[in-house]
Amino acid sequence: MKKKILFVDDEIQILKSLKRLFRNSDYDVFFASSGKTALELLEEEEPDLVISDIRMPEMDGFEFLRYVKENYPLTLRLALSGFTDNNKIYDALESNLAKLYMFKPWDNNVLIGTIERVFALEDTLKNKNLLDRINNLDEIPSIPSLYHELNLMVERDASIEEIAKKIEQDQSIASKILKVANSAFYGAKTGSISQAIMYIGLINVKNIVLTNSIFSKYGSMSEYKQALWEHVNLSNKIVTLIYQKCLNKRIPNVYASAGLLHDIGKVILLHFYEEVFETTLKRMKMTENVLTSSQIELELLGLNHQQLGGYLLSWWEIPLPIVEAALYHHDPLNENIINKELVQVVHIANFFAWKYLEVNYSNEYLNLGTLSALALDREFVESEIEKGLKK
């Protein structure tokens, strides 16, 4: 059955261009020049994907995407808007209304390729074995309550002060947020949660809440869990260092916690499949073992921690690039990846974070193709990471 796509834009010329582009495509495509028309098509066709402009008269993109999220939760939501709407698109991601964004004017091949990869990612996350395993868990991991409350507050446009007061009720979370805000990346130098939120952005605040909650709730091997907590935090720092010092750019603020969330599947694996986890650790330490931990997990369970993490982050409505970082960080050259640069940087950061922690909990290798793809030299990257971590 053909996938259905609904494009929503108040500019008729934009819709005409999209009609020409998708005239002979393998998709059933529908077009709406207003939110009202789009709502009618939603009810009639129930599309698999909606791609909506943000700035529209009467019902704008926010209102439309919010309606889709609430009434058609299985429909994928993407934003397509102009460069001048950068802040608005960020708001759409922050509110979980869009999983991904693209700018106008678009490159036709990039737009088509992105749509193909979005559907390919969904197919990967709906793998029968993965769904069977998830559905057979005694308890399907749910969104932590504080994270859910923050999402609702953001959606109703609560003030920073209101959100800060909610966070301050949990001193453990508050201290971690301040630590991130005062890190070398942000340099906030503040003891105020409100100011910390302004520095690091609400998406990163929510992701710190999510990670801390999952680590606190799941997993029983305290020694390993502590090492994993140190690993994801170090990975996050290294992701930032690679962007700043090696790629000479700032990581988009929306994705600045990708390193923090990339291994969330390991915590879930540890909690629900402890025997598989322990067996994997034992086999990794055997001198004759030639398989990576991910390959051993696949052999024992039929899925690995990347698939678990990717599925849950997608289910929890985390932005698609961070889902990809979890799902593909051990397969960083996969042709289905949309946000290649981010996934490749997370792969490199994951490798070096385990190396510098000097604990034998991972035997994944560094894919040198990622360095080539990013036009980076290994010695240079390693040197910049070491200098950055000594500060």
Top-tier CATH class of the largest domain: Mainly Alpha
State the CATH superfamily name of the largest domain: Hypothetical protein af1432
CATH architecture term of the largest domain: Orthogonal Bundle
Alpha carbon gyration radius: 21 Å
Spans of at least 5 consecutive residues with low confidence: none
- Structural class of the helices, strands and pairings? alpha/beta
How do the strands of the widest beta sheet line up side by side?
A: 2-1-3-4-5
Number of strands: 5
Give the domain tally. 3
Strand percentage, roughly?
5-15%
User: The CATH topology of the largest domain is what?
Assistant: Hypothetical protein af1432
Form type: globular
Main beta sheet strand tally, sense and closure? 5 strands, parallel
What does this structure look like?
This protein is α/β, with parallel strands linked by helices and 391 residues long. It has three domains: 4-125, Response regulator (Rossmann fold), CATH 3.40.50; 133-140 and 218-390, Hypothetical protein af1432, CATH 1.10.3210; 142-203, no CATH class. It is built from 21 helices and five strands. A five-stranded parallel β-sheet has the order 2-1-3-4-5, with helices on both faces. Helix 4 links the parallel strand 4 and strand 5. Helix 2 packs parallel to helix 3. The protein is globular, with a radius of gyration of 21 Å.
Brief synopsis:
This protein is α/β, with parallel strands linked by helices and 391 residues long.
Describe this protein with a few key phrases.
alpha/beta, 391 residues, 61% helix, five-stranded parallel beta sheet, 21 helices, Hypothetical protein af1432, Rossmann fold
